[in-house]
Amino acid sequence: VQLVESGGGLAQAGGSLTLSCVASGLTSDDYTIGWFRQAPGKAREGVSCINARDGTTYYADSVKGRFTITIDNKKDTVYMLMNNLKPEDAAVYLCAVGDMAGFHLPDGDRYLDAWGQGTLVTVSS
After folding, report:
1. What SS3 state is found at 73?
2. End-to-end alpha-carbon separation of the chain, Å?
3. Average pLDDT for the chain
4. Quick check: helix, strand or coil at residue 83?
5. Pick from 25, 29, 65: nearest CA to 50
6. Taking phi first (over 0 means left), then psi (-120 to 50 degrees means alpha), and beta for anything else, what does residue 2 get?
7. DSSP one-letter string for 5-42
8. 8-state DSSP, 89
9. How do residues 24-39 score in pLDDT, each as one tens digit?
């Protein structure tokens, strides 16, 4: 499985960005895909994910009400609309695919099958 992210960049606080992640090489339609973020000096955080089969979503408390994740199953592409960006949202955002547990459990890496290279989001205050 390969994951390619795009859409990062610079936004002002209060602004919006949309991240995209295209997946290839998937062999099943029952998978969960989503985003982590890694800021300098901080632990990696599972931000949001969505199950491709039933649409179940997960959001970290830090982004609930501001970020929206969607999936286009025909394109094997996941999108994350990030509204009302805050300086603390600045990070490298990494796309990942696997089981939903991988996105919210502290030791969730074992539930994840593939990672993208990441895309940088910068938020100016």
Report:
1. coil
2. 37
3. 96
4. coil
5. 29
6. beta
7. EE--EEEETT--EEEEEEEES---S--EEEEEEE-TTS
8. G
9. 999 888 999 999 999 9
